[in-house]
Amino acid sequence: MATAPIEPPQRLVSALGGDPDGPAGAWLDALPGLVQQRLDAWELTLERVHEPGGRSSLLAYVRQADGTPAALKLPAPCRAAHEGAALEQWDGWGAARLLCADADSGALLLERLGGSVTLRSLPEAKALLEAAGTVRRLWVAPAEGHPFASLAGRTEEAVEELRTRGATTQAAGPLLDECLELRRALPADASEEVLLHGAFRQGKVLAGERAPWLAVGPSPVVGERAYDLAWLVLDRFEDLAAGSGAASAARRRVAKLADSLDVDRDRLRSWTLYRAVDAGVRELTAPGGDGQRGELLLEFATWL
């Protein structure tokens, strides 16, 4: 195999390079060697690194020994808990197929999809329809002995950070209190536990060959379906905000998605509010965050 002449994409470096002496910085330094190890071990030929790429992993387009195209993904430390296990359980049903996994590095060899064509390329109504059909396939009972965190556990881990961040900005106001209360109450009242994508949105659904649309990049968690739909409600929220009757349009979107997938409207509204406030506060308080986007997310939450 040829030497991998890779440079980590700038977006990835910017997201992880703030602590050069920490685990993320060390991982970035080791990344070219990690890529080469997987190329050699899995007999892959590197075509190119995907640009601009993501903020928590490197994705490279490769060819297998028989010439079949594939995608090699190397996640940053602590950024891809059990992604491979979820993809293995779905086995290509509604999601990219897992071809190989390396437990030591966390590397995944994936079916290659049309990385430049996502559901965001479709008109909104069509995109929501296709998204609903895709996410429905992912909602299965988790396998016995699964490694996935519960939704209650995951959000409990996040809530202390949210409380701390919220204390540094007055923008959230009463919304923050409502958000924290919803986080406490919602998991306790959930009536179902299915495997969720965990980070589902239009940009995570790519064009494929064996199926028109397939999901990628899960952050799997076990919980109720309304949580998975919440970020889908928030998709293209800037477009809603730019139009007239934004608040009514947001509520109609909640109702339409809930009804199309037999999800309780109130629970979807509540999880959407939680995720909007959480994301908004992060944008307002994170170094390099987008303050305008954060304020708009909080405004969206008030519409619900």
UniProtKB/TrEMBL annotation:
Pfam families on file: APH_6_hur (PF04655)
GO biological process, one term: secondary metabolic process
Record GO terms (molecular function): kinase activity; phosphotransferase activity, alcohol group as acceptor
Top-level taxonomic group: Bacteria
Keywords: Kinase, Transferase
Protein name per its UniProtKB record: Kinase
Organism: Streptomyces rimosus subsp. rimosus (strain ATCC 10970 / DSM 40260 / JCM 4667 / NRRL 2234)
Lineage per the UniProt record: Bacteria, Bacillati, Actinomycetota, Actinomycetes, Kitasatosporales
